């Protein structure tokens, strides 16, 4: 039984022995992400003040000009992980290529690589709507003490050791899994501590919410169009409710709590959809499955897709198990 009111720090220590590998390295890594999350949260929360501070001729503490928040978040995550010398490599949605961190050093025994989307849903920042950060952790496949390689990052999602997100919403939450269920922690901003607020999070098997950018309807494949019509049909438990924030993390978070499905399909304009397999879909798929939900590209389990490039995009359907299976059925029938 998980006790509530415990802090994330306590939870990490207590659960260290349940990790597959128990050297403590993964715990330290999640601690570093916790720290980066607090720093980014602090900045996101004053987003609306940037112009006001700027107008007063102010700069930040280092005397630098204010930066775009997604660039800032990217730098903070990378800096935090680098400074603590905790990973051997990082790949970020904001960077063209992966970053090696002393991985060629023979004394460097760090085994993990991290993939991040430092600030997802960034088009929502300017309008004070929830955004998030997403992370995904793998063990490197190349030997320790040698430079990290592209293969260390191009692993299937089913090889993930941990994954999670931070949602900067009405409150800030860090939600993550190490393959043993999903737990959510809420930040108490007064003291800067995350508390276990949502132990053992699970998607309801069925739901009544569908989340999709319906403005693109005309460009969607037939199977998706048919499924959307199904959601809107007058039946016993339908029509479903449509909710689309346009921040994957927030849409996922709501659907996990209330029951729902998120869809970003391919379209006649974007042949592989929009979302990135490595930075967005795989970590959300790992969380979804750990929370008894499901994630698919319409035909294939997301975590079984073989990645071929760092910034690869895939169609993404994710959420309550029965809803995702229904959408897959429509995709198959439209073949
Ligand atoms: P981003 O990584 O550039 O922020 O894009 C990802 C975001 C998701 O969070 C969101 O679900 C989707 O893009 C929204 O896209 P659209 O505006 O096309 O509906
Ligand atoms: Mg993104």
Average pLDDT works out at 91
Shape: globular
Helix content: 25-40%
Task: Assign the CATH architecture of the largest domain.
Answer: 2-Layer Sandwich
Tell me the β content.
15-25%
Question: Biggest sheet, open or closed, and with what strands and sense?
Answer: 8 strands, mixed
* Helix-and-strand structural type: alpha+beta
Considering the protein shown, what is the CATH homologous superfamily of the largest domain?
Answer: Fructose-1,6-Bisphosphatase, subunit A, domain 1
Number of structurally distinct domains: 2
Order of helices and strands: HHHHEEEEHEEEEEHEHEHEEH
**What small molecules does the structure contain?**
2,5-anhydro-1,6-di-O-phosphono-D-mannitol, magnesium ion
- Given as residue ranges, the uncertain stretches (5+ residues, pLDDT < 50) are 53-58
Please give the radius of gyration in angstroms: 20 Å
Number of strands: 13
Q: Tell me the distance between the termini.
A: 46 Å
Task: Put the structure in a nutshell.
The chain is an alpha+beta fold and about 325 residues long. The chain has 9 helices and 13 strands. The strands form 2 sheets. The protein has an 8-stranded mixed sheet, sandwiched between helices. Strands 10-9-11-13-12 form a 5-stranded mixed sheet, with helices on both faces.
């Amino acid at each position: 039984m998980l006790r509530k009111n415990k802090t994330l720090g306590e939870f990490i220590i207590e659960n260290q022995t349940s990790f597959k590998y128990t050297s403590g390295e993964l715990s330290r890594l999640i601690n570093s992400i916790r720290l980066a999350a607090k720093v980014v949260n602090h900045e996101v929360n004053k987003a609306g003040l940037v112009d006001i501070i700027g107008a007063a001729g102010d700069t930040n503490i280092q005397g630098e000009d204010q930066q775009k928040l997604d660039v800032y978040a990217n730098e903070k995550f990378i800096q935090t992980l680098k400074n603590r010398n905790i990973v051997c490599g990082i790949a970020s949605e904001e960077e063209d290529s992966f970053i090696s961190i002393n991985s060629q050093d023979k004394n460097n025994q760090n085994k993990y690589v991290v993939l991040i989307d430092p600030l997802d849903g960034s088009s929502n920042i300017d309008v004070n709507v929830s955004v998030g950060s997403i992370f995904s952790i793998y063990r490197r496949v190349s030997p320790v003490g040698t430079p990290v390689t592209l293969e260390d990052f191009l692993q299937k999602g089913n090889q993930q050791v941990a994954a999670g997100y931070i949602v900067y919403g009405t409150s800030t939450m860090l939600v993550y899994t190490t393959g043993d269920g999903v737990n959510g922690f809420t930040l108490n901003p007064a003291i800067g501590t995350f508390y276990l607020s949502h132990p053992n999070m699970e998607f309801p098997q069925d739901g009544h919410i569908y989340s999709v950018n319906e403005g693109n309807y005309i460009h969607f494949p037939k199977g998706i169009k048919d499924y959307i019509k199904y959601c809107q049909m007058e039946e016993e438990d339908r029509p479903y409710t449509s909710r689309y924030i346009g921040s994957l993390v927030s849409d996922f978070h709501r659907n996990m709590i209330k029951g729902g499905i998120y869809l970003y399909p391919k379209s006649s304009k974007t042949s592989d959809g929009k979302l990135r397999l490595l930075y967005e879909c795989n970590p959300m798929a790992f969380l979804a499955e750990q929370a008894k939900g499901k994630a698919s590209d319409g035909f294939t389990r997301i975590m079984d897709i073989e990645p071929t490039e760092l910034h690869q995009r895939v169609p993404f359907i994710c959420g309550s198990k029965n809803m995702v299976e229904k959408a897959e059925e429509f995709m198959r029938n439209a073949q």
